[in-house]
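Researcher: Go.
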Amino acid sequence: MKILCISDTHGKHNQIPSRFIDNSDGSIDMCIHSGDVSSRGHDYEIIQFINWYSNLPFKYKIFIAGNHDFYFEETSEEEIKELLSDFPEIIYLNDSGVEIEGLKIWGSPVQPWFYNWAFNRTSETIGAHWDKIPLDTNILITHGGIRGYLDLTTRGESTGCPILRNKMGDLKDLKLHVCGHIHEAYGRFDVDGGPTLVNASVLDLQYRMSNNPIIVEI
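Model: Structure:
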């Protein structure tokens, strides 16, 4: 399966070069957005994103929220389901999973505490979220990364979650981990004998559309 990975569009999804998302040859099966679909999590920003995402020509479209997407943390689960009911082609994950063509996919928006933004969790509480990840997960989508990989800020701070990194060591069937959050840590890392790690932030630190979506085949 060929997967297009994007993250941290912050309302600038329309600036993604069309060559990455027109999928005219149908070669890309799935699109994954790993959070921060909005700038400040206002409902109109979320609706704009969903309308755009629903029209992308991919068979499967999955997304999670990020630390800017306050709407998804402050709105009830029932209201979110009602909003998304008109878009059955989109799969939204929040500490939940889905199986697609034999691939078991899990998504979570939480990340280590970061200036009291949406879905921030302390080191004392974040482990409860990672404990929910099934051990047979094949694709893991989180907004923040794992400690030591694709998580460095320009100040040299490693912002990834060490508890999530430990949990990933138990995911023996993991093939792909997609995250975002730290724009300047954009990139891909293929673990020898392990999963492909992707930070798919398409905006740079100045919120300019500088990075290309990353395509992974598993």
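Model: Helices lie at 18-21, 43-54, 70-74, 77-84, 126-130, 162-168.
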